[in-house]
Specification:
heterotrimer; A alpha+beta (about 200); B mainly alpha (about 450); C mainly alpha (about 300); A: about 200 residues; Rieske Iron-sulfur Protein; 2 domains; three-stranded antiparallel sheet; about 25% helix; elongated; C: about 300 residues; mainly alpha; two-stranded antiparallel sheet; 4 strands; about 5% strand; Rieske_Fe-S_prot (chain A); quinol-cytochrome-c reductase activity (chain A)
């Protein structure tokens, strides 16, 4: 190795022609590097997707979409607790007095104004179907079982933070912001309620 | 860290400066895998496998944590929970295939990495500790992989647990009580499954800790290189970033393509059909084989068939453990001062025989036992031990190595094209290049 | 010291291995291994050429529905499908109402508890239910089947080598042991002929399977889509269906695989270009310029030759 010369000296800034070529080279190179790094970034972001969506409800949970309940044995004044999507559901057969009490309330003065008719099916006004989940922080209110505290308004009472619901399941007193949720349901027959 | 010319970390903005003064993590990263780590400039693609192994470990840990959210380590329901992951959990199937084939991916990378180390003498001074920590990682990986394979609670899981814990019963006197202790019962069952799950979750983090130690140990002498010649000055090296990060990026791309072929098109090819049958303590599968990465060791285990002084079973178990443990002593078994096998003409032959030998052991490990495959495994196992314990010390004593290049950037004697340091990276600058090339 | 100890250990292992080798070799010569009738008569599965077996392969939905019909009318009486849920039938192309009807009309009911008495009872299957098993437990299954256990079919394709091809071959592979001849033209040895309750099938590992031929005659199932229900067709369809049950996500896997491959290929090409870019300077070869350059020397030599100057 006798005479070795540098093949291409770095161009002097003073040489306009070489400088232009040099600059173009840098831009093209930068572009490829940036493209490669962005591609890796996009790939990583896509790879994160399955790691996250695995946490959302799986197919078996989603398939628990509907529950059918036989309500033929519920006498007026009684109620049952059933389960829909792993959440408690209250089904209550209201007495005429209950309906009377619910209907006599001035709707405009309620925290979450709804009439009993809004919350039941036409012709089936005595059947109150609500989620048994207090809208405050998710406790299960009392009042569906025989002899439980029904609260000051004869409906449900949540013992956790003292929310009182009336006979239409509407919030009347206490911290809960809205009425008990009425799930989607329908009467499959006169005696069978299909929730969901 | 390693070399005087390693660039110190210079914070680019005030925040990094503030952080660096209080918690010098940016400095640590910069020195470990950034511009502050000078790496020999002549590394070939075999040096990609360290980073690839790290990637594989990361993939396994991430997918494993996520799968752990859906798996239950209950003997009556583990198999079902895996099926739930495959069917019901959103994207569960891809997570499980990645984790399942990821174990094979990890081992394939690590095997290439180990043989790279064997060929280029990475176990020699001053990198003995790097090598030994690597063997520790490998042992931990084997334990992790074995326990992970038990978790789906299929037939192979169950009988694998039975057979592998059976190794311990080969130990005289304490063996059988030890086996019962490890399993928490007389056969694999709930107790074993739960503890395997717990340990399978724990060990990867211990592996990660050893990986950190290993990188630490590596950065004292710096990376080895294909010539095995020590780095002499700055023009022998390039900063890790951007040069080797770019090269690793390309390597990761290629590796992920190969990995994806298995995950998406051949997800069952490395598994065993019997593991899709739920564990049944009353029926043994017709042909018990471990996963492919254990085949060579399984062949060594099965090669001992004669009670000679010790029972054959004990010989097999001893030999199997010895076959890995002897790797710890490689530095002292190989006394040749030359690192790279490229310059060791005699040992080179034996090295490639070893590669072939391990493949033969692998074949013998998965084959049905016939007189032929048994003889094959015995010959191959004999060579394995002879290679490390007899041939390697003798060859290294008598072999005459080829002349080594005087420096990394001057390794033209052996056909490599001479390379110059890139502009601006040498202290002397391009003007000094003619002198440097001489 | 390490080398001496290592040398001795090495000699020990090699020695014991060589002793084992010799002992085994002698043994193999003295007692040459005999080929069992299983090896002589066992057949490898035939390929049925299924649509999904290529990397881009997808299921044939009509075939899956036919296969499901075969399962429902032929297999379901004995074989459970315990990891498959009714809602998964969406993958066969049924809509929710159809699946609800299938679940509601399923011949086997789901174990349940009578809400009034608390006693064990059964109820109609729901969308979210897994396919109910025909037998309450393994003992019941064995008792009803001459002590043979009909395996669960959810994962049967993955649990057998050659999967669907094996199922197809097995279903169409029943032969009469008395008249069967293997490739060498040998009859089945007496001890390998089926005993009572067993049936000769060369595709089965030990040649004698407890399952009676399930698909015996053309037209055993009347296909809703009018396909001619030959024995071969039914065996193929139900094998395809069982391939689906073992991995309902196969189509998604193939589709995702291609997307990932294309993305990775583009990304890897970019990564390669970026790598070459970054290394363009570092890997630059030093070329020799000047009088010693080989090309230059060649040119000088040529000129000399031209002018007739020697050497």
């Amino acid at each position: 190795m006798a005479t070795v010369e540098q093949p291409s000296q770095p161009t002097m800034p003073g040489e306009p022609q070489a400088d232009a070529a040099h600059g173009a080279g840098v831009r093209r190179r930068d572009f490829i590097n940036i493209a490669a790094v962005s591609f890796a970034g996009v790939g990583a972001a896509v790879a994160v997707a399955p790691l996250l969506i695995q946490m959302s409800p799986d197919a078996s949970v989603r398939a628990l979409s509907s529950t059918e309940v036989d309500v033929s044995k519920i006498q007026p004044g009684q109620g049952i607790k059933t389960v829909w999507r792993k959440q408690p559901v209250f089904i209550r057969n209201l007495t005429p007095q209950d309906i009377q009490a619910a209907a006599s309330v001035e709707v405009g003065g309620l925290r979450d104004p709804q009439t009993l008719a809004d919350r039941t099916k036409p012709g089936k006004q005595n059947w109150l179907v609500t989620l048994g989940v207090c809208t405050h922080l998710g406790c299960v209110p009392l009042g569906i079982g025989e002899g439980e505290n029904k609260g000051e308004y004869g409906g449900y009472f949540c013992p956790c933070h003292g929310s009182h619901y009336d006979t239409a399941g509407r919030i009347r007193k206490g911290p809960a912001p809205t009425n008990l949720v009425v799930p989607e349901y329908e009467f499959a027959s006169d005696t069978v309620v299909r929730i969901g | 860290m390693s070399f005087a010319w390693a660039k110190p970390y210079e914070p680019k903005n005030n925040f990094m400066k503030w952080l660096d003064e209080r918690l010098p993590v940016p400095r640590l990263v910069y020195g470990a895998v950034g511009g502050g780590y000078p790496v020999p400039r002549n590394l070939n693609y075999f040096w990609n496998f360290g980073v690839l192994a790290g990637l594989a470990l990361l993939i396994q840990i991430i997918t494993g944590i996520v799968l752990g959210m859906h798996y239950y380590s209950y003997a009556g329901g583990a198999f079902e929970s895996v099926e739930r992951i495959m069917r019901d959990v959103n994207a569960g199937w891809v997570l499980r295939y990645v984790h399942q084939n990821g174990a094979s991916f990890f081992f394939a990378i690590v095997y290439i990495h180990i043989f790279r180390g064997l060929y280029y003498g990475s176990y020699k001074a001053p990198r003995e500790m790097v090598w030994m920590l690597g063997i520790v990682i490998y042992l931990l990986m084997m334990a992790t992989a074995f326990m992970g394979y038990v978790l789906p609670w299929g037939q192979m899981s169950y009988w694998g647990a039975q057979v592998i814990t059976g190794f311990f019963s080969a130990i005289p006197i304490v063996g059988e009580p030890l086996r019962v202790f490890l399993l928490g019962g007389y056969a694999p069952d709930q107790a074993a499954l739960t503890r395997f799950f717990s340990l399978h979750y724990l060990l990867p983090f211990i592996i990660s800790a050893v990986v950190i130690l290993k990188i630490w140990a590596l950065h004292i002498p710096g990376s080895s290189n294909p010539t095995g010649v020590d780095v002499k000055d700055e023009k022998d090296t390039l900063p890790f970033h951007p040069f080797y990060t770019a090269k690793d990026g390309f390597g990761i791309g290629v590796a992920l393509i190969l990995f994806s072929i298995f995950v998406f098109f051949l997800p069952y090819s490395l598994g065993h059909p019997d593991n899709y049958v739920e564990a049944n303590p009353l029926v043994t599968p017709a042909h018990i084989v471990p996963e492919w990465y254990f085949w060579p060791f399984y062949a060594i285990l099965r090669a001992f068939t004669v009670d000679f002084i010790l029972p054959a079973k004990l010989w097999g178990v001893l030999a199997m453990f010895a076959s890995i443990l002897l790797l710890f002593f490689l530095t002292w078994l190989d006394r040749s001062p030359v690192r790279s096998t490229s310059y060791r003409p005699a040992y080179k032959i034996f090295f490639w025989v070893l590669v072939l030998d391990v493949m033969v052991l692998g074949y013998a490990g998965q084959a049905h036992i016939t007189p032929f495959t048994l003889a094959l495994s015995q010959v191959a196992a004999a060579y394995y031990f002879a290679h490390f314990l007899i041939i390697l010390p003798l060859v290294s004593k008598f072999e005459k190595p080829l002349p080594l290049p005087t420096s990394i950037s001057h390794s033209v004697l052996h056909g490599e094209k001479e390379e110059s340091a890139p502009f601006g990276l040498t202290r002397t600058g391009p003007a000094a290049a003619p002198a440097a090339a001489e | 010291m390490v080398r001496i100890i290592g040398f001795l250990i090495g000699l020990g292992f090699v020695g014991v291995l060589l002793i084992s080798l010799i002992v085994n070799a002698v043994d193999a010569i003295q007692n040459p291994p005999v080929h069992t009738a299983e090896e002589e008569f066992h057949l490898e599965p035939r390929s049925a050429g299924f649509s999904w077996q290529k990397p881009w392969g997808q299921f044939d939905e009509a075939q899956l529905q036919r296969g499901f019909q075969v399962y429902k009318e032929v297999c379901a009486a004995c074989h459970s499908l315990k990891f498959v849920s009714f809602y998964e039938l969406e993958g066969l192309g049924y809509n929710e109402a159809e699946i609800k009807a299938i679940a509601n009309q399923w011949a086997i009911e789901v174990p349940s508890v009578n809400p009034d008495t608390g006693e064990n009872s059964t109820r109609k299957a729901l969308l979210s239910d897994r396919f109910p098993s025909p037998y309450a437990n393994e003992t019941a299954a064995r008792a009803a089947n001459n002590n043979a256990l009909p395996p669960d079919l959810s994962l049967i394709v993955e649990a057998r080598d050659d999967g669907a091809d094996y199922i197809y071959s097995l279903l169409t592979g029943y032969r009469n042991a008395a008249t069967y001849r293997n490739e060498a033209g040998e009859p089945v040895p007496q001890e390998n002929r089926p005993g009572t309750g067993l049936h000769f099938n060369p595709y089965f590992a030990n040649l004698n399977i407890a399952m009676p031929p399930p698909i015996v005659s053309n037209g055993q199932v009347t296909y809703a889509d009018g396909t001619n229900a030959t024995v071969d067709q039914m065996a193929k369809d139900v094998s395809a269906f069982l391939r689906w049950t073992s991995e309902p996500n196969l189509e998604r896997r193939h589709a995702a695989g291609w997307a990932v491959m294309i993305f990775l290929l583009v990304g890897t090409v970019l990564a390669y270009l970026a790598y070459r870019n970054i290394w363009a300077n570092a890997k630059r070869e030093v070329s020799i310029r000047g009088p010693l350059e080989p090309a230059f020397q060649q040119r000088m030599q040529d000129q000399k030759d031209e002018r007739g100057i020697a050497g």
